[in-house]
Specification:
The chain is mostly beta strands. It contains no helices and 12 strands. The strands form 4 sheets. The chain has a 4-stranded mixed sheet with strand order 1-6-5-3, with no helix packed on it. A hairpin with a 4-residue loop joins strand 5 and strand 6 (71-81). It is rod-shaped, with a radius of gyration of 35 Å.
């Protein structure tokens, strides 16, 4: 006896399609939506039966979806993006002919924008000025700036005569904008 049966296999195109990975900012939650055309029921990993689920912790979330044709599971990994700080450093002194590299690298940065329009995470500078960077992360825009200054030329007298004649009576460093250590010696080199 021979028995023959025919059946047709159809490809099922699931209509719920959550992204494989989603990001949520620290101290915020993410509404996951598994809405599927023709779905009869939903069952999330915690047993709730809604089309949506509020994810407030990092982890893998999944939902079983039942349709008239079949059932399937969709899942998503939720990653929390921590708050970050941006620090491109303290103000810097830049001598003539030197350059300095400013680094704004941030782990969750999506883009960088320097005051001159540059979009790299670092900026090489060779001129005094104020340099500002904005970093767009998944959760916020961070901004920092640094002042690059050239050393001031200091006029140092090579002699002074404190004899109250009005000429070279005082020893001055001009302009005096910082602290300096100065040693004064006589003609024989004694302090």
């Amino acid at each position: 006896c021979t028995y023959r049966n025919y059946f047709q296999v159809y490809e099922f195109n699931k209509s719920a399609n959550m992204e494989d990975r989603q990001f949520v900012c620290q101290d915020q939650s993410l509404l996951l939506d598994a809405s599927a055309h023709g779905a009869q029921s939903y069952s999330w990993q915690d047993g709730t039966n809604s089309t949506t689920f509020l994810a407030d912790q990092p982890g893998i979330y999944w939902v079983d979806i039942l349709t008239p044709e079949c059932s399937y599971r969709d899942s998503v990994e939720v990653t929390v993006v921590p708050s970050e700080m941006l620090d491109i450093g303290e103000d810097k002194l830049l001598c003539t002919g030197d350059t300095v590299v400013l680094n704004a690298s941030t782990p969750s940065a999506l883009s960088y924008q320097w005051q001159d329009g540059s979009t790299a995470s670092t900026l090489r500078v060779g001129q005094p000025g104020t340099y500002t960077v904005s970093v767009d992360t998944r959760c916020e825009v961070l901004t920092d700036q640094v002042e690059i200054v050239a050393p001031q030329k200091i006029s140092i007298p090579n002699v002074f005569t404190p004899n109250n004649d009005g000429k070279n009576d005082f020893f001055e460093l001009v302009p005096l904008t910082s602290d300096y250590d100065v040693t004064i010696v006589d003609r024989s080199g004694k302090q």
